[in-house]
Design a protein that fits this description.
Layout lengths: L6 H32 L10 H12 L8 H4 L3 H11 L6 H4 L6 H11 L2 H12 L4 E5 L16 E4 L5 E12 L6 E9 L10 E7 L5 E6 L11 E12 L3 E2 L5 H37 L1 E2 L2 E2 L4 H35 L1 H25 L11 H10 L7 H14 L3
Bound molecules: flavin-adenine dinucleotide.
Length: 403
Amino acid sequence: MDFSPSDTALDYSNRMRAFLREAVLPAEPVYDAWRAQRRGTPREWDTPPVLEELKTEARSRGLWNLFLPDISKLSNLEYAPVAEVSGWSPVIAPEAINCQAPDTGNMEILHMFGTPEQKQRWLAPLLDGEIRSAFAMTEPDVASSDATNVRTSIRLSASGSEYVINGRKWWISGTADPRCVIFIVMGQTDPDAPAHRQQSMVLVPRDTPGVEIKRHLPVFGYQDQHGHSEIEFHDVRVPVSNLLGERGGGFAIAQARLGPGRIHHCMRLIGMAERAIEAMVRRASSRAAFGRTLSEQGVVREQIAQSRLEVEQARLLALKTAWLIDRHGARGARTEIAGIKVVVPRIACAIVDRAIQIHGAGGFSDDFPLAYFYAWARALRMADGPDEVHLGVVAREELKKIE
Ligand SMILES: Cc1cc2nc3c(=O)[nH]c(=O)nc-3n(C[C@H](O)[C@H](O)[C@H](O)COP(=O)(O)OP(=O)(O)OC[C@H]3O[C@@H](n4cnc5c(N)ncnc54)[C@H](O)[C@@H]3O)c2cc1C
């Protein structure tokens, strides 16, 4: 296993670092002020112009769509440091380089399973950063960590020319943003088929009659920049050509979607944890209590050291997982993908928690990004599947070893 960066990886990560330092970090207060001014108004979910400026700048620096190996020609191992750097500014940097969830996962499955027409209609503008998309699987009425529970019904119309969708979804990320014009909806087409063949995915344009966005759910009180919404589908009709992949293939597509997506989330969280460590060190070095700076207190030094050791371990596991995906595909790296999805959000939560503590009461406020970082790291112990499901995958593999 060799994790030394290739020349290409070094070049991209250096460019990403420069972009973060020169363009993204200075844009953060502009972005925040723009959004704060519109909070609670009908324009709340519009895109701050500074983000479009950043997108243009990123493209001119060759930092665009790097998540998709077929297009970027970067391996997962080479993309890892770029994603990590983008995690330093998790709200705006990933979108600035068109590598933001949930669009990356959606672009991946459109790329893998889309027909030429679907690719032209939806994938091309997504890759251009002109539109955004959502992935609708989770439902309030069933335990959705088990995708075979999904109950939204997708039925063929009497004429056989359309699918008719009825059901309720929630926590569907991205849909508050008016640019989010296409939803990939998972539902049951074949309730009598074996459990893993009952579901299919259909492409539902946002403006289809019968699509009703009920509300946007906050995460620990934060309204994320693009919302996590509850959506009802009432007799929503789409042409049969909007089926993504094969009928009954929804479960397999969901699995394919989550492999690379999970590791990308983890890489970004490592960047976020690095920023929390930097904040922790700056604060500890600049404040004194009981006659010494905080950084001279043994307890604080231990917290800093502990954070450094944890993030190094997390990064190594993320790189190993990326390396395995490159060699054996997401299927071959299943156990490691499950493992990394547990390890990194937990470590990120712990590190950000320490950073908050070292910042005193300030750490709980919006004067620092730490409270938001904590909310997001904690949410990632649930989004894309709860820890327990991933631990189950790891345990299953371990138990097989003595069979
Ligand atoms: C910020 C955020 C964004 C999200 N974005 C999206 C999105 O864009 N699209 C989408 O479809 N969904 C999204 N989700 C939903 C997320 O994927 C689901 O919440 C998750 O899959 C769990 O499903 P559930 O909420 O129905 O929990 P349930 O399935 O009801 O599980 C509840 C709890 O039961 C326990 N449990 C479940 N299975 C097991 C097991 N096998 N062994 C032991 N214990 C178990 C765990 O403690 C688990 O947390 C998002 C969630 C969050 C928080």
